């Protein structure tokens, strides 16, 4: 029976890897629909994403590939399935709204299982789309207590990726490491410029002529995780920081959705603090 | 003895091509420095550009590759050598000047063998760089007669690519076909918008908010050849067409030089009226 | 009582205009919050948009301004009020959805009075936002009959601007002239490239390296009206036309919303077939 | 006799300024060719750049304007004249070469009076253009001693603007303050990201998806002066830092030349640590 899988390999670079891997495909009479490779020479690391189709047994293919790649390699043979995402937000609706509209249109290869917010502001918007909304206020409780409540909800649903759609709270290392490589954030500046609070105010004060947004995986260091996508727009002296904030929203939402689509399609490898995007 | 070659393959897509080709490399213990592939599914065509290093015989490698790819395939095994370019220009100096400066800085993997122009304007600039300059006036002679004179000069020098650096004359089909796939032009608009004369005036009259430039291979149809590179800049109502022309020069020269570098590095495949750029 | 108005003047250029107009403001002790001027020298036309605040009588100000500008001038003294927009759509939800989300967030200085579509596809999305949806099928009736039905609905509501959010039907000259300068369209290409049907397919076939979108006022000539905003994104040989279409949606919706905000803020003058955007 | 001057005003904002200033023009029957204004509301500062033509006495006009603007205002009434620029460079030729080519083409409204470099590398290039070249080595002498030598040369020539065309030495506060608001630098990153040494290496390590360049006035704080122009280009994981450096050169030279043209046309106001660019 015809199948299609995505094969993702990430390992130490060795002579003959492409040959060995393509031999596995060839021997099983598989068709290569799409193939991207990259060698990080500095680190001597090999990355490959291949889409193959054919009549084959997935476990057998995985075993065969394991035999030709280094023991320490990361190998994924992914059968197509709709992923689950959970969204964390605060008060601003543009990034969340953009994802909701795409979800509604069937543009995302994912189901939004729930939206969790530390304010009630977005409840009515989320309700319009018949998606579960959880208001977990952070008032009067510690950061740890708040995260515990959030974790209860998100764990109940389960998810492949957690999307911080302008979630304006800093996460603890504990929270971040619990969902390592699964949290995607949109930072409202062209990182690494303007790390931290109110980047638009910082950008205005610095008098920059371009502003941007950065989608990245979340790691312990605030705004320091591997960057998935970035984009920018020109600004000029006429824009006050509130105008920059307003103009920046369009970049933020587009960059976040672009990054989300990339990870949903298994197109992003994490390579230390950088990414390979195929 | 350690060698490095660029292998370029362009053929009908077949199952097992990557396997067969990588086996050839593997059997000769070659190292793959860089590999890019693309399959045009609509046309069922396969494109590959691989840089391999090792201790091997180039002719033997070429023969071995020929055996595993279709008979009708285009195969190039290119040993590194500095290419020769000849430049045709008219009066404007920005595109020509940009190439001259890059050439002087050793940034181009090519030698400029000569500059041919239908006006004398650029003679002093070219002389500054000790590069042969030929003024071939088109006054009072037919297009064919003029091209004949140009061909005498360019053929005497020989070249890998002819660069039209704002050469403002239309070429005859005879001239174009003589140097098929070897002529690169910069068109001062975002093609296919504003084909033909004075695109900036056309752009201004149409009231566009963005202008651009297009580098392409020259084919019989005016401004219709395969596009190699394009770029744009924003404009607004304040710019008269002369201002657009001035602003556009920066895009023109950068796009032309970018395209030139791509072809000099054998990174461009022609695929019908389109290009594959690795 | 403190008031704020937008003064828009569009007239033949005369020496002393700025002086005469600023004198009117000065004599009434008005504060100039924002001022933009432009002179189209080719046409000798003067454009000005000024936001003034102060304690004044709007009609008296208008009369005073009329006395110092040419008789044939277009003068608008606009008191802030929320405008009304009506949206026409077909099946695609991205442009419509973007406007709905902005509307919900209070980002648009306008009320969406209704959405009219020639298919039922978008009904459930629009219903989610409690906005009237009208499905007016074009099946089995003439273009004129269909437009008559549409006009009945839109006239019942009244509107300042009609937004064609990927409305895939061609409008008759009669319809267009009925709502002259009030209809805004998003064309899914970088006009004037790829006028007409399926621009992404055209773009793919032409092998362009950049695609774009154009928001413009609708006039009789298909895709030929004054351009308000344009933007582009890079593409490459890997994208089939369906991929370009998908990537292009982000540009389309952002450009349309940007243009919509500009007209809602009275920042756009029509100057023949071009626009002045302040 | 018909004259044309640029009037630049930069002062505390007052009600009636535009009226008072335009009255001065009106009373002298001057024609306003171009006018740009901006009010920085936060700082309550007014900026204006107007080009006027007519038959008038420049000193009388200046006096008349002085009477209607605040005592503390900065007023310049500039008669057109070719400015003088001096270029400081090190080893890289792209930014210098771009300016030389524009100069040769008559595109710059300035004369290059000399090029000063701390290495000999660029001597032959500069000689090609018959422009004085001074090699002032920094070997074996202190920063202060080196700058003293540089100042001797640049002072001998005199200049309106000093252009640091990839001059890779840090200037002392003494040097900077001597030529306050007259030194323009190109920084090879999108400031404020990657301040300091080897920004491309920093950018590569951070894994950014966009790189840029920033032209700014030089102040005491390294890379912290008012920004005049910025631009960016996309990059991806395939680029090593040397590739980013190579790709970045195009942005650097275009941004520097754009900024240079802006200051030569008196289009840039310094507003604290920001600029107003008309």
Key features of this structure:
8 helices, 4-stranded antiparallel sheet, homotetramer, 7-stranded mixed sheet, alpha/beta, Alpha-Beta Plaits, 278 residues
Topology:
The structure is a homotetramer.
Chain A lengths: L1 E11 L4 H11 L3 E10 L4 E11 L2 H11 L5 E5 L4 E7 L4 H11 L5 E8 L5 H6 L4 E3 L7 H15 L3 E4 L8 H6 L4 E5 L11 H8 L3 E8 L9 E8 L6 H24 L3 E4 L2 E4 L1
Parallel strand pairs in A: 5-6, 5-8, 6-7, 8-9
Antiparallel strand pairs in A: 1-3, 1-4, 2-3, 9-10, 10-11, 12-13
Number of domains of chain A: 2
Structural class of chain A: alpha/beta
- What is the name of the CATH class of the largest domain in chain A? Alpha Beta
What would the CATH topology of the largest domain in chain A be? Rossmann fold
Give the amount of beta strand of chain A, in percent.
25-35%
How many individual helices of chain A? Answer: 8
Q: What characteristic shape of chain A results from the CA principal axes?
A: globular
Q: How big is the Rg of chain A?
A: 21 Å
Largest sheet, strands/sense/barrel of chain A: 7 strands, mixed
Q: What is the helix content of chain A? A: 25-40%
Distance from N terminus to C terminus of chain A (CA atoms, Å) equals 28 Å
Output the CATH homologous superfamily of the largest domain in chain A.
Formyl transferase, N-terminal domain
Most extensive chain interface and residues per partner: A-D, 33 and 33 residues
Strand order of the largest sheet of chain A: 7-6-5-8-9-10-11
Please state the oligomeric state of the protein chains shown.
Answer: homotetramer
User: Which stretches of chain A are poorly predicted, pLDDT < 50 over at least 5 residues?
Assistant: none
Helix-strand topology string of chain A: EHEEHEEHEHEHEHEHEEHEE
């Amino acid at each position: 029976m015809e199948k299609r899988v995505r094969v993702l390999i990430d390992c130490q670079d060795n002579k003959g890897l492409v040959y060995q891997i393509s031999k596995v495909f060839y021997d099983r009479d598989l068709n290569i629909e799409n193939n991207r490779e990259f060698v990080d020479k500095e680190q001597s690391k090999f990355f490959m994403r291949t889409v193959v189709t054919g009549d084959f047994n997935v476990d057998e293919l995985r075993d065969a590939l394991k035999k030709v790649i280094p023991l320490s390699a990361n190998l994924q043979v992914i059968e197509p399935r709709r992923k689950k995402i959970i969204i964390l937000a605060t008060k601003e609706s543009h990034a969340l709204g953009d994802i909701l509209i795409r979800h509604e249109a069937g543009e995302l290869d994912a189901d939004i299982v729930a939206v969790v917010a530390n304010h009630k502001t977005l409840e009515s918007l989320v309700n319009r789309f018949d998606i579960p909304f959880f208001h977990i206020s952070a008032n009067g409780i510690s950061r740890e207590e708040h995260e515990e409540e959030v974790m209860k909800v998100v764990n109940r649903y389960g998810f492949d990726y957690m999307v911080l759609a302008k979630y304006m709270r800093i996460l603890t290392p504990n929270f971040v490491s619990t969902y390592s490589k699964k949290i995607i954030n949109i930072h409202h500046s062209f990182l690494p410029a303007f790390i931290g609070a109110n980047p638009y105010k910082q950008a205005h004060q610095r008098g920059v002529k371009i502003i941007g947004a950065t989608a990245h995986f979340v790691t312990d260091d605030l705004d320091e995780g591997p960057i998935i996508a970035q984009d920018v727009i020109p600004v000029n002296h006429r824009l006050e920081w509130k105008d920059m904030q307003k103009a920046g929203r369009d970049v933020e939402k587009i960059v976040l959705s672009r990054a989300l689509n990339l990870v949903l399609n298994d197109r992003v490898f994490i390579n230390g603090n950088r990414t390979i995007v195929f």
